[in-house]
Amino acid sequence: MADWQGTFGDQYTMRNAELADRTKFFQRFLKYEIVDAFEIGCNIGTNMKVLERLGIETIGCDVNATAVNIATLNNLKAYVATGTDVDVYNTFDLVFTVGVLIHQQTAELIKMMKEMVRLSAKYVMFAEYVGDDEEVPYRGERHALFKREFGRIFESLFPQAELLDTGTAGKEMGFDNVTYWMYDISNCSSEDGFTQVARESSDEGEREEFIGSPVGAFGKVGVS
């Protein structure tokens, strides 16, 4: 399993130190009159810096201390924390993540989506690679990258969420062909959709019980 807190995460940080400007992408969300935002998996603060320039007060967390240190040296508000257990109890107009859900195994993915809803007073946005519930080899590591239909999963967990905008963002917006979803979650409970269900094991075809997964939301991606 990839060590995002250690050397593997440090190497990721260095590879992503020079990302293209994403101002054009985030400008599309200004119409929602967002005052403050929280980013899960902020890395060195590339997205936070854009939002600050656009007048949105932004705080972020990341599991990698090297990345957080770089962000804070650039006068951004960031601290070390996992995206599944954020030690913050106030809420923000927007909670978002970019390229982080793809690195979560099923149980962690559910926890992270739940945490995003808990932290948000109005909106949740995520931008990720999509695919048909498949694990993708990632720099020699297993269980490190999963392509999924993240919007479908989120809507299964939170059926009261209202989809406001979705689309793709490419190199002209500073991304490598990701799909984004923007939701109004003001009518959601953080417990929506969390029930005990039976589903098929992807590896051996055995039925197993998994607390917190809606029926059919995860296709053939197994829990490990």
UniProtKB/TrEMBL annotation:
GO terms of molecular function: S-adenosylmethionine-dependent methyltransferase activity
Example GO biological process: methylation
Domain Methyltransferase type span(s) in chain numbering: 39-119
Transmembrane segments: none
Gene3D superfamilies (UniProt xref): Vaccinia Virus protein VP39
InterPro entries registered for this protein in UniProt: Methyltransf_11, SAM-dependent_MTases_sf
Alphabetical UniProt keywords: Methyltransferase, Transferase
Protein's recorded name: Putative methyltransferase
